[in-house]
Design brief:
- It is a single chain.
- By secondary structure, the protein is α/β, with parallel strands linked by helices.
- It contains 16 helices and 12 strands.
- A 7-stranded mixed beta sheet has the order 6-5-4-7-8-12-11, with helices on both faces.
- Helix 4 crosses helix 5 and helix 11 runs parallel beside helix 12.
- The N and C termini lie far apart (about 55 Å).
């Protein structure tokens, strides 16, 4: 019984743990500790913070496994905590910062209302929808783009092994942000060309990223609105972590615009979580937490295989196959073709 009581207390402290991690990120604690060790006194002085309070925060971070107190008052990052350093090669700092940002958390205070109405609460709190809010807050928008890149990095490495892109000539990435995913596909297939399609804000960091990767000459950047159109000229259209942001009607509209420009032998390749028909506790329920986050903040949802099939059908598409991307990520390659 003690084990279950302890687990229940961990869950109940969850929101406070999120605030703890977010505060540590905004104070730059992990970056200042780096790969070595730092004393609480040094960290407090550099952060112009109270020493006793800083020590208490560092010990709380130790208690949840992000730091280790190697000697009284001296701290180092654990292997898990190191992922919160912005210079870590597999950094998750901006993704975690985004999830713990007040703009993301405020709507969760009204989860009950969203459950009751089925509608997001973000606009009620902030006076505009989430993506309009990002557009009006350039720094947060930049952090969002970096977070999406961090969340896509492993998928970009695994996707070319899970899906045969060699059968295509041009791949368009719809809502592809800074091009992290498309760059992974193009690197794996040197003969392939790409089209990166997103809003001007979404593409703001794409040119420099593709230039650094040596792929700028093989990839066209197209600014646009996927609720209005999709770019012609590709025989494969990749859509990663976009449809779950939107309601069924909105997602069907996006797919409908892709269907309008899809050649007869073309393919639509959606990269998203596929929920099982019966709920389980794989990945500690993160897929279901993402589903509720879509509900309260965006009005979107995670979907089952049958729900994707229905969505495709509404857009004149037919679900052809569902294949896991790989064991390290929660996504599937959901491929559809024209009816």
């Amino acid at each position: 019984m003690t084990e279950y009581r302890s687990r229940m207390m961990q869950l109940a402290f969850g929101p406070m743990i999120g605030h703890l991690i977010g505060t540590a990120l905004r104070l730059g604690v992990l970056d200042r500790i780096g790969e070595g060790e730092r004393s609480a006194e040094e960290l407090a002085a550099e952060g112009k913070a109270d020493l006793q309070s800083t020590t208490r925060m560092l010990r709380a971070l130790t208690g949840i496994g992000l730091l280790a107190e190697t000697a009284p008052g001296t701290f180092a990052a654990t292997e898990t905590g190191a992922f919160l350093r912005t210079d870590h090669p597999e950094s998750m700092a901006f993704m975690v910062k985004l999830l713990t940002d007040p703009s993301m958390l405020r709507s969760w205070e009204h989860l009950g209302e969203s459950v009751r109405t089925g509608e997001p609460y973000f606009a009620t709190v902030f006076g505009k929808d989430y993506f309009s809010f990002l557009k009006d807050n350039p720094e947060l928008s930049e952090h969002f783009n970096i977070a999406m890149s961090q969340g896509t990095r492993v998928t970009a490495q695994l996707l070319p092994k899970a899906c045969d892109f060699g059968r295509f000539g041009v791949v368009a990435d719809i809502g592809g942000g800074d091009g992290t995913l498309l760059a992974g596909i193009l690197r794996a297939h040197p003969a392939l060309r790409g089209i990166l399609y997103d809003s001007a804000e979404g593409l703001s960091q794409a040119g420099a990223k593709l230039e650094r990767a040596g792929l700028a000459g093989r990839c066209e950047l197209v600014a646009g609105d996927f609720f209005a159109s999709a770019p012609a000229g590709a025989d494969a259209y990749v859509i990663k972590s976009v449809l779950h942001d939107w309601s069924d009607d909105q997602a069907a509209t996006i797919l409908g615009h892709v269907r309008a420009v899809l050649p007869a032998d073309g393919r639509v390749i959606v990269i998203e979580t596929v929920l099982p028909d019966v709920a389980d506790d794989r990945q500690e329920g993160l897929n279901y937490m993402s589903d509720l986050n879509m509900l309260v903040n965006l009005g979107g949802r995670e979907r089952t295989r049958d729900e994707f099939a229905e969505l495709f059908s509404r857009a004149g598409l037919s679900l052809a196959s569902v294949v896991p991307v790989g064991p390290q990520v929660p996504y599937c390659v959901i491929e559809a073709e024209a009816v």
